[in-house]
Amino acid sequence: MKTVDLVLAYGLPAVFAGLVLEFFGLPVPGEEVLLFAGGLAATGRPGLLPLILFATAGSFAGYWLAYEIGKRVGIERLIRYGRYVRIKEAEWHKAQSLYDRYSVPLLLGSRYIIGVRHLTPYLAGLANLPTFKFLMYDLVGSVLWTIPLILIGRSVGAHWREAVGLLHRFGLLAAAGLMVLIMAYLVYRRLKAKR
Fold first, then answer.
1. Structure confidence at residue 80 (pLDDT)
2. Lowest mean pLDDT among 69-78, 116-125, 129-138, 172-181
3. Residue 187's domain spans which residues?
């Protein structure tokens, strides 16, 4: 049974569950769930406000659970077992420093980048980002991610699949753009350090 079939059969609880399960590596594409459910909302079933509430709650809960898993795994375990996947302690501390500096843009912006969205809450937990701070950005990020996608789905209606394709291409371009910016920044820092 496909994700959209589950949303058709079970409605709002399927939207909530799909968005929670997305953060555990299950093949539940959040964009597809939101765009399809938004298209259904154009018909009045489900209602727009209940859909927004269930979707935001599902996204919030999934992100939070992934954060808690990252926090429970902890940096000590990652350092202890990281050598098996070639992660050295010094590299992790460097990554954690960068994460501390850029946690807000990562928490808010990564939701729009497929793949990155799924790793960010685990990294926030591993970096031991304060829970209250994480939850505040989780809530804001959930609202900023779910509502626009639902409204786009509502606008395009039966053409939601085309919108999913565009979002996937946009997500890949955004990820590539982010990588270029990071590389440019690292080159800039290295050149500045040599002066």
1. 74
2. 172-181
3. 3-194
